[in-house]
Design goal:
Elements lengths: L11 E6 L6 H9 L17 E7 L3 E7 L7 H13 L6 E7 L6 H12 L4 E6 L14 E3 L8 H15 L15 E5 L13 H12 L3 E5 L4 H7 L6 E4 L4 H7 L5 E4 H8 L3 H8 L10 E5 L11 H14 L4 E5 L13 E4 L7 H13 L4 E3 H8 L3 H4 L7 H6 L1
Parallel strand pairs: 1-3, 1-4, 4-5, 5-6, 7-8, 7-9, 9-10, 11-12, 11-13, 13-14
Antiparallel strand pairs: 2-3
Length: about 400
């Protein structure tokens, strides 16, 4: 991915759903103007969700997701349908493609109910309009198209663009915490786990947001922080650190300078900060033999002293003085059954969109399992959670309640 591209987690995700042979993949190809999905006369050609990041005018950067037919058959078919339903956790807009020459089936109607229950903006697209022998009475969120002739496809794109503002609320990373001309220091450890030749995504996005708001970003490694603060000439408004060096950084940053972490910023950006702060209290309640799930949203090669699989488990056991059982998931993997766990500790979720992070957070809440994230857990264990939340004064009351 080039630096000019919008990352997938920041794009509007549009999911296309439908029964086999409704022409769903043909509609996807017509909308995208490219052969994103295989098309044939054989039912069930699409066997797994197919994702494509692209520019879709007039909407802009999107991820198009073509899913397997909802009526896929057999054990393998059921697995494919379940994967299609999991996509509902990630998308902002849904399109149900149905055969315009037939009535909506019970399965399609059930899917519409699921859209409504999830408060997911959606369109019902009646394909094969070129074969209709009589006009259809359409509701506001319905339209006719023909993937074969291209009729209605431009209108479909326009309708998706109009739905987009409903699909995603405005989110804040760091821009509302600073003003133009402010100085912000970012502490970025460069160790064996750091990618060669580049900064990781949270660091890139935070720097860009700082610059977009007219402030100045100063980036240094953790062992250079003390010298950096001396050489600046004036106090920075805010210091943002990688979570794994939260402890030593907090000792170097004067109390009159705001301090937080990338992980905490992303918890707020993904909409889960308040829940994560509440979940941190569960660290003090862990008992011997309790199961703790540590979940990362990305998949990367585990290296020596990996923060998720090695550092956090070690810190948690030292903090709790308990012998615990740790489980690990990464990428799209997240347990459906959370009942075995006393606590979930999640990464900042920079590679997941806010829909998926929202699902995981709500899933934990529904299961009555506390969930927190790396930065908040580490701040709690180092006794600096209150300080790390000072930039978000509206959340300090949660610490009093704990």
């Amino acid at each position: 991915m080039s630096m000019q591209e919008t990352i997938s987690a920041e794009r509007i995700h549009i999911g296309f759903f439908g029964l086999r042979n409704a022409g769903k993949s043909s509609v996807v190809n017509a909308v995208t103007g490219q052969s994103l999905s295989l098309v044939s006369e054989v039912k069930g050609t699409t066997t797994d969700p197919v994702k494509k990041a692209m520019e879709l005018l007039p909407l802009g950067p999107v991820v198009i997701v073509d899913t397997p037919g909802l009526d896929d058959e057999g054990t393998l078919g059921e697995m494919r349908v379940e994967r299609a339903r999991q996509i509902l956790r990630q998308i902002h807009l849904a399109v149900l493609v149905t055969d315009g020459t037939t009535k909506l089936s019970e399965m399609e109607q059930a899917l519409i109910e699921e859209f409504q229950n999830r408060k997911l903006p959606f369109l019902i697209v009646y394909n094969k309009s070129d074969l209709l022998t009589h006009p259809l009475l359409l509701q506001e969120n319905e339209l006719l198209v023909s993937a074969k002739t291209g009729a209605g496809i431009p209108e479909l794109k326009e309708r998706l663009a109009r739905l987009a503002p409903q699909a995603r609320q405005e989110r804040k990373l760091v821009g509302d915490l600073i003003t133009a001309g402010d100085l912000v220091v970012l502490v970025v450890p460069i160790d064996k786990a750091a990618p060669k030749g580049r900064l990781i995504l949270p660091q890139q996005q935070t720097i860009r947001d700082i610059l977009d708001h007219g402030a100045m970003a100063v980036v240094c490694r953790d062992h250079e922080l003390e010298q950096t603060l001396r050489n600046l000439g004036r106090k920075p408004k805010l210091v943002i650190t990688d979570s794994q060096v939260f402890g030593p950084v907090s000792q170097l940053v004067p109390d009159d300078i705001l301090l937080t972490s990338f992980s905490i910023l992303f918890a707020r950006y993904k909409g889960s900060l308040e829940t994560a702060v509440q979940g941190a209290a569960a660290l003090s309640r862990l008992q011997n033999g309790d199961h703790v799930l540590i979940s990362e949203g990305c998949t990367h090669h585990r290296q020596c002293e990996d923060i998720g699989t090695q550092k956090i488990p070690r810190w948690v056991e030292a903090y709790t003085e308990k012998k615990l059982v740790f489980s690990f998931t990464s990428g799209g993997e997240f347990p459906h059954d959370l009942s075995p766990y006393a606590l979930v500790i999640h990464c900042g979720g920079c590679m997941l969109n806010e829909k998926e992070m929202g699902y995981r957070t709500q899933h934990a809440i529904d299961a009555n399992v506390p969930i927190t994230n790396y930065g908040i857990a580490i701040a709690q264990m180092h006794g600096i959670l209150r300080r790390s939340l000072e930039p978000f004064a509206e959340l300090l009351h949660i610490l009093e309640e704990k």
